[in-house]
Structures are given as C-alpha cells and as structure tokens.
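Show me any protein, keeping tokens residue-aligned.
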Amino acid sequence: MNKFIIALLLIAPLVPGAWGNGVHVGGSGGSVEYEFAYVAQTIANFVAPCASSSTCDLTPAQRAIVDLIRNGAARDLPGALRFDSASAHPGFPSALYTLQDSLVLINVDKLYTKDAAGEWQSMPFNQVIATVVEIEAFRISRQGLGVPGVDVSPADLGKSVAALWDRDLIAINVIGSDARLMAIGGTLLVSDNRKVTDLSGAVLDSLKCWDEGDHPVSIQSIQNLYWVDDSRPSPSGSGFIASAVGTIRYSCAHSTLVGTLRLFLPFEKLPDHEIGLIEKDVRIRVDTIRRETGSER
C-alpha cells in the first residue's frame, strides 16, 4: 500500500456558515469537526491508493470519481462544510449530512453518541473518512462529472476507501479527554478541541540511521500505539503531559530500521473542559532496536 507523509498541517478554525457557528455537543468540543476538515483538505491522499486497480474493488464509475478527486475536484470541499445541531436549531437538517446548493450541512448530533454507560463517544476516524469520501462522490455526481448516467454508489465508495485505511488505523483517546492520537500508515495525527496537528514531519526529523552517511527517507508504519499511564501536570500547571509509546518502522536510504517511538504530548486546558496540544513543546524520541534482515540497499 502506498503511504503518505504530509508536512506539518494545522487546520484553521472552521468557518461559520449560514447555519450558525459550529455548535458542538457532548464532551468533545468539536474534535470530530476538525477531523472532518482535515480529511476534506487531504482527501486526495486518502483515495490515492484506490487508483490502483489491484487495491480497491471499484467500478469504472467509482474509479473515475477517484481520479477526479486526485486531480483536485475536491479543492473547495473544506470551505463548503458547515456544522450545526439539528436538536438545538429547528430547521437544520437532521440527517448526518445534507447537500444544499454549494454547501455541505453536517449535523453534529450524529458525530457524538452516548454508550451504554452514558459516556459520550466520538465518531470513529475511519467513519469520518468514509463519510467525507461519500460526500465528495455525491458532489461530483451532482455536478455532472465522472461517468454521466452511471450509478457511482457514493456510500460504497466511501466504505471501500475507509476499509483500505482501517487495517492501518490506530486511534486512542487522550487520557481524561476526547482528543485523539491517531496513526494511519506512516502518518501521526493529534486531534484536539481546536485543530488537527500532523506530527509526521516532527517524527521524521527525530529519526536516525545506523550507517555513516545514511539518512532517513520515510516512515513506513506506526503500530501498537498505546498510552503510558503516567500522565502528569505540565510545568506551567495549566495542563498536563500525556505519554504514548508505539513501534515505528522507517526507511533510510540504504536500510529499513525498526524502533520504539516515544511521544511526550503537552496539553493546555481550554474553556469548557476542553484541551489543546501545545505543539512547540512536543517531545519525540525514537530508540532504534533492529535492522530488518535483507533491507540493505
């Protein structure tokens, strides 16, 4: 599977739309809304592996949609998203999403649900991927692009793309909050109550190769990610530092190495019990433990 490594990306605050100012529900404070915005902005990277005929089981019409997305058809999608609550604002569509003229109206009531214990749960990230791809497939079809007169099955296309990434996706909640740390292929994301931060570039910068003159090229995968239960107050006293550990596999120019990835993520407390990553204070350490046999080039 092709992996993508995206340079540092901060999603700007969601633009208030005709239906209000991005009302949030539950205890999430809008983390899923920022994940929607992130996937909308980087959707071409998510559908790219499906361009290979051997990767996704797509119809010719669905493959045409994928090609259009890869070539920039969704460039205006992030600015079209509008979030609001149907339960709080009568008249706002109650479905998960509704296409209205050039806008995509998303009902945040559907993004967060309560489990059997009464705890709020955020929509899984793979479902966010599926929904955003489905939305864009509908938008393209409505514009008369793709294969005219052919049923694209946007929902099936969204599920196919999400299933492709689901086998690589690790998503864990930050201790004591609804923010999430997610590894998907070689990309590492932190989703909090104000943005999505891509830490892939910072991780790549922290890598070292064993051989003199060799240099890191790409992150192949991040796996087995979990929180270390040693969350502690930040030095400023206004937040906390969460620690996570995982296994990283990465390529150098002349070899492939495997190591232990250690993340030290400081969060500040925001109003209404929300939190935000303090990106400048993030610490990353990689302890390389072995060279993959036969990887020398």
The chain has two domains: 1-167, 173-181+189-297.
